[in-house]
Amino acid sequence: xxxxxxxxxxxxxSAEQREIRKQTILEAAAELLTEMPVSDISLRELSRRVGLxxxxxxxxxxxxxxxxxxxxxxxxxRWIEELxxxxxxxxxxxxxxxRAVTDTLARSLARRTLLCELLSSLGSELERNISAESARDFxxxxxxxxxALAELLRRHIPALSATxxxxxxxxxxxxxAGLWPFAHPSPAVAEAQQDPELAATKVDFAERLGRxxxxxxxxxxxxxxxxx
Length: 228
Known about the structure:
Blueprint lengths: L14 H19 L9 H8 L3 H5 L5 H27 L7 H13 L2 H14 L5 H25 L5 H22 L3 H6 L12 H23 L1
Helix pairs in contact: 1-2, 1-4, 4-5, 4-6, 4-7, 5-10, 6-8, 7-8, 8-10
């Protein structure tokens, strides 16, 4: 049996139709991520969900990793677009402190479950089975978005240099990837953590990330002050 069985979709012929089809695939991937981890989602599973053959899905995304790379960058861009509103509230009563900025950053990111899931899978899962060309394409687009985030943070913490702001953004990504799985443990671990002796092992993602980023921001500002 081949994978080219008929589906309910007609072939997309115009650029607009192709874009609609791509967005349909991305939305199906996002929906699947609410039901299972990235590691369990194959192109075959994705094609079944979207109602296309695997061969047709590959016309839009060469690999499953390519689907998740685009989904990650799309959600990152959306977060960066909404973040100024959140950060503005941090300084509503006057200039925002670094702590207010990092706490707001962490709380805003915590609401982006899809983005956090994908960031936590990036180094351990998604970047492991791709070509150098695919990695280069993804990372170029990803780097541009992170640069925009760094510039946004500089506007709210003006004492940060461009280099320090980029480092703070890099730490945000790395800390998110590390903390998210511990803040969302397996059912067995979550049950074990009900033991009073293990209460301290529970991770509140927004609280821990905010504190970590605050420490990082203060450290970066101190290093720059010493260098100056």
